[in-house]
Amino acid sequence: MENPWKDTTSEINNGEEIIVATADLKYIKKLLNSKKYPPVDKLDDDANEETKKAAKEKYKLRLDVYPQHFVGDIDNAKIIILSLNPGYSTEYYDVYKNSTNKDGTNYEQTIKENLEMERPFFHAFELASESDLGYWGNKMKCWVKDYDNKDNDKIIKSLKKITENIALAEFFPYHSMSYNDMYDKLAKGTSPNSNRKIKDYLPTQKFLFEKIKKRIDDKNDEVIIILTRSFAKWYEAIEGLRDYKHCYEVNNTRNFSLNPAQIYKVHRDSVEDELKGIILK
């Protein structure tokens, strides 16, 4: 399957900028124009306007920033971490818009080049700073020896070296503050047993799922897969993942830790020794 991230569309929809893979565009626009969008949690009848507004913002897709479907070299990484979807905050937006790396490339271009698989590298720490390691920096700092005794600059430097062998993949590629299950399958497909139309994954999702499946089906590839969120969604999407011999789950999805001692095989075997063999080389 050709990489759908090599062709993206940036346009104004209902007065807001959207950046979407062109292959996904018709499905995303149908969602945006749906009366059910954005999905809202059930509120009390006496909820005030501020609460109602916050409820609408909770699951709204943030399409004005470049999607982050995967980070790193998905084809060659020794460890792939599976998550749910990229988060969003006003703080992230501000840093995203104003960040450039040492060669002057802005962060949006860095994400774009990674998704196009032209210059893949684990760029999740590019927005980290002395005062804030960022979401994945805080999750992965436990992989740095004696991290409690190091400042953030040293932790980031160590993490960048470690993550040369690591990739991150999101089940759903588009940003939101919180995820809603209505985003699971936004496309339409045909049932393999009949001509009946069924809900299906977006083209970008299918591309990623095929990439991961190809790796776990390769008997000479011993990539380690670590699920951190929504295990059932990933197992449904990628046939054979649950039974893959190097597939592991975190112990607690609500506030998960990437401490190797807290990561277990699907049958609850520890991955600690295998991870340390890569991290501590």
Keywords:
281 residues; alpha/beta; 6-stranded mixed β-sheet
Distance between the termini: 35 Å
What is the overall silhouette? globular
* Class per helix and strand makeup: alpha/beta
* SSE pattern: EEHHEEEHHHHEEEEHEHEEH
What does this molecule look like?
This protein is of the alpha/beta class and 281 residues long. The model has no long low-confidence stretch (mean pLDDT 91). Strands 4-6-5-10-11-12 form a 6-stranded mixed β-sheet. Strands 1-2 form a two-stranded antiparallel sheet. It has helices at residues 25-32, 49-58, 90-98, 107-115, 134-140, 152-162, 203-217, 231-237, 272-279, and strands at 8-13, 16-21, 61-62, 70-71, 79-83, 166-170, 175-176, 187-190, 197-200, 224-227, 247-250, 263-265. It has 9 helices and 12 strands. It is 30% helix and 17% strand.
Question: TL;DR of this structure?
Answer:
With 281 residues, the protein is of the alpha/beta class.
Produce the secondary structure layout.
Blueprint (H helix, E strand, L loop, with lengths): L7 E6 L2 E6 L3 H8 L16 H10 L2 E2 L7 E2 L7 E5 L6 H9 L8 H9 L18 H7 L11 H11 L3 E5 L4 E2 L10 E4 L6 E4 L2 H15 L6 E4 L3 H7 L9 E4 L12 E3 L6 H8 L2
Parallel strand pairs: 5-6, 5-10, 10-11
Antiparallel strand pairs: 1-2, 3-7, 4-6, 8-9, 11-12
